[in-house]
């Protein structure tokens, strides 16, 4: 995804979000997520067991954010698989041109939308 940009100086990157439904064999709980190890480590300076913030815009112009704990890793650099903590809100995201929910992954619980 060429349009998903990285900003390592500010500790965030753009990503696609999807729910881990039905639960995968690794079984994400509602507040856990699965991400790419390199993105989490090199850009966000986070590790397994640490928290990240996800944010995305809603169809009505609002912003939804949530804190997730990184539980496991996968190979897709631009995908974050989410536990069902925000299942209802994720269905309200503003879909991108590729018909996916996209937003930002941030290193700090205190970071805000860029």
Question: Which H/E pattern describes the elements?
Answer: EEEHEEEHE
Low-confidence stretches: 1-9
How many E-type strands? Answer: 7
Distance from N terminus to C terminus (CA atoms, Å) equals: 19 Å
Tell me the radius of gyration: 13 Å
Helix residue percentage: under 10%
Sheet having the most strands: 6 strands, mixed, barrel
**Strand neighbour order, sheet with most strands:** 2-6-3-5-4-7
Give the amount of beta strand, in percent. Answer: 35-45%
Q: What form results from the Cα inertia axes?
A: globular
Helical stretch count?
2
| Average predicted confidence as pLDDT | 81
Strand pairing plus helix content: what structural class?
mainly beta
Task: Compile the SSE list and pairings.
Elements: E1 6-7, E2 12-19, E3 32-36, H1 37-43, E4 51-57, E5 63-74, E6 79-82, H2 87-90, E7 101-106
Parallel strand pairs: 2-6, 3-5
Antiparallel strand pairs: 1-2, 2-7, 3-6, 4-5, 4-7
């Amino acid at each position: 995804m060429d349009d998903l940009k990285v900003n390592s100086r500010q500790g965030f990157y753009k990503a696609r979000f999807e729910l881990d439904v039905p639960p995968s064999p690794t079984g994400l709980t509602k507040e856990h997520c699965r991400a790419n190890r390199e993105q989490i480590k090199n850009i966000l300076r986070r590790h397994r067991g640490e928290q990240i913030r996800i944010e995305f815009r809603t169809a009505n112009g609002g912003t939804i954010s949530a804190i997730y704990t990184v539980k496991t890793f996968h190979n897709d650099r631009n995908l974050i698989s989410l536990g069902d903590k925000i299942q209802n809100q994720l269905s309200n995201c503003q879909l991108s041109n590729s018909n996916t929910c996209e937003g930002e992954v941030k290193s700090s619980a205190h970071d805000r939308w860029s």
